Amino acid sequence: MNLQTLCYTSRSGWSIDPFPALDSNQTLVLVFSAPEFIDFPEPIAALRKAYPTSHILGCSTAGEIFGTSLQDKSLSVAVVKFERTSLAVGSAVVHDSKDSFSAGRLIAERLKQPDLHGVFILSDGSQVNGSELVRGFNTVLPDTVCITGGLAGDGDRFKRTWVIHDGTPQSGIVAAVGFYGDRIEIGHGSQGGWDIFGLERTVTRSEGNVLYELDGKAALQLYKNYLGDLATGLPSTALLFPLALRASATDDKPIVRTVLAVDEASQSMTFAGDIPQGYRAQLMKANFERLIDGASQAAMMAQSAAAANSDTLCIAVSCVGRRLILGSRIEDELEATVKALPGKPHQVGFYSYGEISPSGGYCNLHNQTMTVTTIREAAV
């Protein structure tokens, strides 16, 4: 495969001029963009013009990853022309979070073929229930198909997220690209690095991804009691304290959930994924070194598709909460992922409202993780 990465900023323009001449129906153009480019779409339109027959997939972010650098107000782009791999893109409109499962199922049915090897998903991050979206994919596709991706971001504003659909940024969209053939190699890894603390409580009232009560008490008020003065910054300050959920006292593999919105009237909290009633919930807090080590571990898990002296596309999707916690050390985790991969990794990606990656077989929605997808074509 032929792989080039490039970036755009309003101040400096494109890092490469002219664009790489790689347009084809076997070319994937990945675009991770600052949210404001939905109102200033000229750079995205320039990509669409340069790659008219290619498959363009992209989304808004809470920060764009380009190599080992974190950028804002930019576009981070990868152009990949495959030699022996065919591609197909499927999409669906989501009017309400209740549409999430059917959207995942619909796209999976459109992409499903005997030689489907992997799927990369980008989803609106504000209107979609990521758990239900992933469940829709899982009901159609076998666990032999590697499914990864992420939920679009909007910085720490949580107002408007979007996905590129038919070459244009649009809200309320889920889009995915399928990779077909026996030459494509896809690796994946996802790790966190947070510490659990405080009392473990039971989810006594919830509906989908909306949490109403813990131990019979209003969830939002309990959460505010933990946050103290930080509660005035909700929902963005909730990114500093995600929830760890486990099905029972014997469940040793908790899932992590991040708050997307709060409702003062109902004293409820809306999360990026489901909060099942009866589950046990406990707060989490950051450990700097463990977060960075988690990023390195995620890349090492994804090494199966990287090889010495070989170009590899590395797509890093990390949670916006990690960015807020790590602050000036944020690029440490981006350096950790690249350093952990052999060969010649070309890294692009974004900070997200949710990460999608397999764990224990089928794909799952994750929060507060670094998720790494590696893609390359094997030699003949």
Structural overview:
The protein has 380 residues and is α+β, with helices and mostly antiparallel strands. The chain folds into 2 domains: 279 residues, no CATH class; 93 residues, Elongation Factor Tu (Ef-tu), domain 3 (Beta Barrel). Helix content is 19%, strand content 42%. It has 7 helices and 27 strands. Strands 15, 16, 17, 18, 19, 20, 21 and 22 form an 8-stranded antiparallel β-sheet that branches. It has a 6-stranded mixed β-sheet with strand order 6-5-24-23-27-14. A 6-stranded mixed β-sheet has the order 8-13-9-10-25-26, covered by helices on one side. Strand 1 and strand 2 form a beta hairpin. Helix 2 runs parallel beside helix 3 and helix 5 runs parallel beside helix 7. It is globular.
The portion of residues forming beta strands comes to 35-45%
Largest sheet: 8 strands, antiparallel
- Helix share bin: 10-25%
Mean pLDDT: 93
Structural class: alpha+beta
**Overall tally of structural domains:** 2
Topology:
Layout: E1 2-9, E2 13-14, E3 27-33, H1 42-50, E4 55-60, E5 64-66, E6 69-71, E7 74-81, E8 86-93, H2 100-111, E9 116-123, H3 130-140, E10 146-151, E11 163-165, E12 168-170, E13 173-180, E14 184-191, E15 194-207, E16 210-214, E17 217-218, H4 219-227, E18 243-246, E19 255-257, E20 259-263, E21 268-271, E22 280-286, H5 288-301, E23 311-319, H6 320-326, H7 330-340, E24 344-352, E25 354-358, E26 363-366, E27 370-377
Parallel strand pairs: 3-4, 9-10, 23-24
Antiparallel strand pairs: 1-2, 1-7, 3-7, 5-6, 5-24, 8-13, 9-13, 10-25, 11-12, 14-27, 15-16, 15-22, 16-17, 16-21, 18-19, 18-22, 20-21, 23-27, 25-26
